[in-house]
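Deliverable D4.2, example record:
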Amino acid sequence: MSIENQEEKAESVSPEGAGEIKGRIKKFLSFFLEIVKIAVIALIIVLPIRYFLFQPFIVSGASMAPNFATGDYLIIDEISYRFSSPKRGDVVVFDADFISGYEGQRFIKRVIGLPGETVNIANGEVQIIKDGQTTVLTEGYLPKDLKTYGDKNITLQANEYFVLGDNREYSYDSRMWGVVTRDNIVGKAFLRILPITSLSEIPSPVY
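Output generated by the structure prediction step:
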């Protein structure tokens, strides 16, 4: 037997070895197909949630201090307002296209006045007037000594909302540019994801 024939025999693969290789390839392909299937299912589930039910929103600026700070990563619930209206105390995100100089941007503020109500701001207080009854708004989510500056009296029409930032001294809100209409509201802040130390549901107001 020649040396060349010996080398050929040494490099040949036994039927058992070939079967083992095929088995490994089959397992790899099966694993790969399983990963692809999981990825496709995840996309089918996640994309509708991302674009139609919930959206991420990163806070920028100090207008919602002390409750929200720059860099807070929030999840915005877009579906609830398809079945119900915004409520007083809700923290909402809305398109600011109607505010000159802020086209294409989104704001985050808190709902204070509802359709059909009159909001009166005077002497550092927020008054809600409805059906002839005047109530001074008590906002438990704000420091007790915080004053709401400005003089404003406005009656809200259907689908109009009066919104304020929690940082009343520095917030650019309905005191300056007026009301937010229902069709501008994207959704309400539902969950704070980041920073990790403040992972929580958005606290509800106390009246």
